[in-house]
């Protein structure tokens, strides 16, 4: 039933990815879920439209301010690249909305099917690793503020950002290769956009199905490890050290704002992406298992649209988390949008840090974290 619930470039779509038997086995209890899937599809369309409007507007404003209205700093480089990744993805959301609204008929051709999926995963990898870079930058600013003051530069930040995009493009390129279009099993007039891991229309030859299953497993596990486990581990580790350092400084520990921002960053990252990766693993396990489980199939039928919607929402949450939580929201809401974002992204240009031969003062620590906190 994968072509019924797969409404996004993230999901594998139509049973052809798995090579676990005939299409009849995939659809034998289709009628049991018609109403449920219809409700989930409506929910998905609403969420995608919301993510599109908020994501394009929010990230568009961030790009406008950081790219054209502000002096380039390390922080503005990070947030500009994060906003570009999210804006690029949300700009393609009308394709997913149309696909869902047309009962999963893809009218845009094979190239756009490939491109839409690739952009989706490009956003996932780029935004995740940009968050990793931001976390490492914050870690360095707190743990080694003197070194950070002397070595952090716009040029180096731009080079690191370029490296992130190259890595994200490399990790997302297989989806451009494997994504394909084909007629639906039940209605030849319906064209599905799906992942054809075997690059073949042969679903009868055991060797071809084995190759399809192997590539499906490899892609899912690689995405889980490199798109979630490794980045999340780095982010948590960086903030664990930051929290430990801040707790040793009583003057900083009295302020709850850094801890709230850290909690928001980690929680949003986990809540938006963990469900999607868990659903992908459940779907993989169920379709490579010897005995197909209807229970797990019901779980993915309900869970995949919800989990994917959460992942989509992450692209419009970032401007809120990294801009409006930088300082007191009530104070910022009274300002103009330009002043709000300039205040949120601005780095300290003049620091009254008093360094000694053996270290630095408490005030220098506080301002170093303030830069990383934004």
Describe the structure.
The protein has one domain: Rhodopsin 7-helix transmembrane proteins (Rhopdopsin 7-helix transmembrane proteins), CATH 1.20.1070. 73% of the residues lie in helices and 3% in strands. It is globular. The two termini are 44 Å apart.
Give the tags.
mainly alpha; Rhopdopsin 7-helix transmembrane proteins; two-stranded antiparallel sheet; disordered N terminus; disordered C terminus
Topology of helices and strands:
Blueprint (H helix, E strand, L loop, with lengths): L1 H4 L17 H5 L6 H36 L4 H18 L1 H9 L7 H35 L1 H7 L2 H25 E5 L7 E5 L10 H42 L2 H4 L3 H32 L5 H31 L4 H5 L3 H9 L16 H12 L1
Antiparallel strand pairs: 1-2
Shape: globular
The total count of helices amounts to 15
User: What portion of the residues fall into strands of 2 or more residues?
Assistant: under 5%
SSE-based structural type = mainly alpha
Low-confidence stretches: 1-29, 348-374
State the domain count. 1
Helix percentage range: over 70%
Order of helices and strands: HHHHHHHHEEHHHHHHH
The number of strands is: 2
Name the average pLDDT. 77
The CATH fourth-level homologous superfamily: Rhodopsin 7-helix transmembrane proteins
The CATH topology is given as Rhopdopsin 7-helix transmembrane proteins
Rounded to an integer, what's the Rg over CA atoms? 23 Å
Main location: membrane
InterPro entries: Formyl_rcpt-rel (IPR000826), GPCR_Rhodpsn (IPR000276), GPCR_Rhodpsn_7TM (IPR017452)
GO cellular component, one term: plasma membrane
Family: Belongs to the chemokine-like receptor (CMKLR) family. Belongs to the G-protein coupled receptor 1 family.
């Amino acid at each position: 039933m994968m072509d019924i619930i797969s409404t996004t470039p993230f999901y594998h779509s139509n049973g052809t990815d798995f090579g676990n038997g005939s299409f009849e086995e995939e659809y034998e209890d289709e009628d049991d879920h018609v109403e449920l899937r219809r409700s989930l599809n409506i929910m998905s369309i609403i969420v995608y439209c919301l993510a599109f409007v908020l994501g394009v507007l929010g990230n568009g404003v961030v790009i406008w301010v950081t790219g054209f209205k502000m002096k380039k700093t390390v922080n503005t480089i990070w947030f500009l690249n994060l906003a570009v990744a999210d804006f690029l993805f949300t700009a393609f959301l009308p394709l997913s909305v149309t696909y869902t609204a047309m009962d999963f008929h893809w009218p845009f051709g094979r190239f756009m099917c490939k491109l839409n999926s690739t952009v989706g995963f490009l956003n996932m990898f780029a935004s995740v690793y940009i968050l990793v870079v931001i976390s490492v930058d914050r870690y360095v600013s707190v743990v080694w503020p003197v070194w950070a003051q002397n070595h952090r530069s716009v040029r180096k930040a731009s080079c690191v950002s370029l490296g992130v995009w190259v890595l994200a493009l490399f990790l997302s390129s297989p989806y451009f290769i494997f994504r394909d279009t084909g007629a639906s099993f039940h209605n030849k007039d319906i064209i599905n956009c799906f992942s054809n891991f075997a690059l073949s229309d042969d679903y009868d030859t055991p060797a071809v199905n084995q190759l399809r299953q192997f590539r499906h497993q490899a892609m899912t596990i690689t995405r889980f490890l490199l798109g979630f486990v490794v980045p999340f581990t780095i982010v948590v580790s960086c903030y664990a050290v930051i929290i430990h350092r801040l707790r040793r400084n009583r003057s900083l520990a009295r302020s709850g704002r850094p801890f709230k921002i850290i909690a928001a960053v980690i929680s949003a990252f986990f809540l938006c992406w963990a469900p999607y990766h868990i659903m992908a693993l459940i779907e993989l396990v169920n379709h490579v298992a010897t005995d197909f489980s209807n229970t797990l199939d019901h779980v993915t039928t309900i869970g995949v649209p919800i989990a994917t919607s959460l992942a989509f929402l992450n692209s419009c949450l970032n401007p809120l988390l990294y801009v409006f939580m930088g300082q007191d929201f009530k104070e910022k809401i009274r300002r103009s949008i330009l002043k709000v974002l300039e205040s949120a992204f601005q780095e300290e240009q003049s620091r009254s840090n008093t360094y000694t031969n053996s270290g630095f003062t408490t005030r220098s620590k506080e301002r170093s974290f303030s830069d990383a906190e934004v």
